Amino acid sequence: MKFSSVFLTLSATVASAQYSGDIVQYWVDQSGLLSNNSLIGGLQSPPSGWFEAVVQAAIYVAALESKNESLAFQQLAVTHAAHDSLTWTFHGTRNFGNLFKSAQDIVAAINISESDDRYWRAAAIGRRAAVRVTNARQDDKLNNFVNYVYRPAIPGVYQRTPGSPFVAPDTPQARYLRTFGGIGNVTKFRAPPPPSVNSTEYEAILNYVKSVGDRNSTVRTPNNTETAYFWRESSPIQWNRFAHNVIGNKFAKDVQSSAKFYAQLNYAHANAAIAGWDSKAYYNSWRPVTAIRRTDIWLPSKRNVSNPTWTPLLDPTPNHQEYISTHATFGGAAAAVITAWNGGKDEINIVQSTNGTGAGLGVLSRRYTSIKQAVKDNGDSRVYGGIHFQFSSDVGSVVGGQIGRATLEAFDKNWDKF
């Protein structure tokens, strides 16, 4: 009898097993791995924000529809929503094996048997959620051909990135993507005009990036160099991990709250990417590498001589227009959402790590006690890397903050405007 009681107790424990971590964070991380490891060599900025918003929307739908079920049931519903929406995104990149392994591992940890009716009820909820969201984004304009012809090489106008094999900037169609969460027409977030290339103000800004962003700079500090590499990783991946560190494991048993947080964060990322591309296309501004290699033509002082061999620290330069920095826009948008979920406080105490430096430096770690400081470092990193002007990063962070706050404000009423 004693043995039977123990056996029954163990059986009940196994039957109620569930994943011990935050299921939404798990799928955020798996999504990031896929976007970096796909056979296409990663994703450009707008798709990197867009696809994660699609996945998180599906997860949020599944979380809402399973909220009255057990924690393990909710985790399983979310898993199917994530798997199916990720498969929809990456079906052309031979990532089926990676997706299968991610799902198989977490299903084993959730531990609801396929012989249990709950498994198939949860799967049905997740599958419906994925279909609902991906169907809503089918006519998303991301597949559309949008022509781009380089304009004459006059001062200030974007030109083909040196060494680039591409005949157009990355994804010119991305500026027309539909925003997430009902924030409205993205053009209302268009950045103000950049400084005139004929101004003394512009000359000072250009001289700064020329000195601090040079690959062999003698004025860039070791900390600045590390900042350039630390924040080089794909912004949505880096800021999602930043969010993990701030939020921690507090929503591991509250799937709905976790799903809402990451939906808001990744809606903001997607909206920031679309807005960034709108400003880039509208202003069509040249990058520092183009300007520095022909400064003698137009600088007011005539004292600055062009350097036809100047190379930025972060080379190759991204293949799209300079103004505004979408990297900075991602950061400003993420910070707005994270701050709101941090009780409106800027103060944090986290250790952030990155291994996406692209420089063979291994894992770099930094302690952050301020969200605003992280935003500042994120934006400045592109200047230290020589691929953005300071005004582009500064304005990008501001625009991103506006988008993040707008996403938060609209979310509860318009979250299902995928």
From TrEMBL:
Signal peptide extent: 1-17
List the Gene3D superfamilies: 1.10.606.20
Q: Which GO terms describe its molecular function?
A: peroxidase activity
Top-rank taxon: Eukaryota
Alphabetically ordered keywords of this record? Oxidoreductase, Peroxidase, Signal
| Protein name as it appears in the record | Acid phosphatase/Vanadium-dependent haloperoxidase
| Taxonomy of the source species | Eukaryota, Fungi, Dikarya, Ascomycota, Pezizomycotina
